[in-house]
Amino acid sequence: MPEALAPLVRNTIFSGNIHHIVQADSTNSVALRGALLAGQHPEETPEGAVFLAEEQTAGRGRSTHSWHSERGTGIYCSFLLRPPMAPAEALWLSLIAGVAVQDAVRETTGQAADIRWPNDLLINDRKFAGILTEMSSEGGRVHHAVIGIGVNVNQRSFPEELQSNATSLRMEGGGTELSRLDVAAALIRALDREYRALLRAMGSPIRTPALRFEPIMRRVESRSSYAHGKLVHVDEDGGYNGITDGLDPRGFLRVRTDKGLRIVISGSVRPAERKTDAPGS
Ligand code: BTN
Q: What is the pTM of this model?
């Protein structure tokens, strides 16, 4: 796989640094361990190392969820980065990764994916990819960050407990088997583009610190049907409903509720049912 991938990802920050693993516990854990072992010698796991596994035995999702990681069907990969940012800014890494997955899917399958803030990728309202960003910080700066991306590519079915919400590119694309290599290569190229754009935006001297991420924010907003005007239920602070109203300058989701504007920090969102009056009431 790395030999076949190399020519497809030439000139990206990830080229020359792709590790193919037959079976990993979790590619995020592999990347985090690699970065920790490198310790004071970051050149040993440089920015841009990629860990791609055929199978994960302990794939991790957000919160306490696991990630279904059956052998040879999906893409399970983690990207090690050393962005010059504060830990509170790391949400942008997840958000740009969502845009990258969306682009890779459009390029390789023609399918239009939606981003459900902050890091679920959906087709026809079912989830086919997820992103888990983890990091280690030191002195108020990110020391290293790992963006873990799982993409359901060729699965034809899922375990019962996932069936109502999960899908794969193959299932949404009429059952034709896809090349995981092509999707992985497109994903690596797209993440390279988005990461460079993020670094450029951060380094721009014309922006005040509060507005540094504005171009990225607009880009993410334009790619997600969840960003504006969507009635959602937020699983945070006991749960509440509201209408989404864009991202704030930190990348958090703004939601207008009956009681005013609320900012979703880490809760998950899903479409809410519109209240209908009971018949006869
Ligand atoms: C989520 O939607 O909850 C995030 C899922 C992230 C899964 C990927 S698969 C590659 C990487 N390794 C992991 O253990 N998790 C991420």
A: 0.94
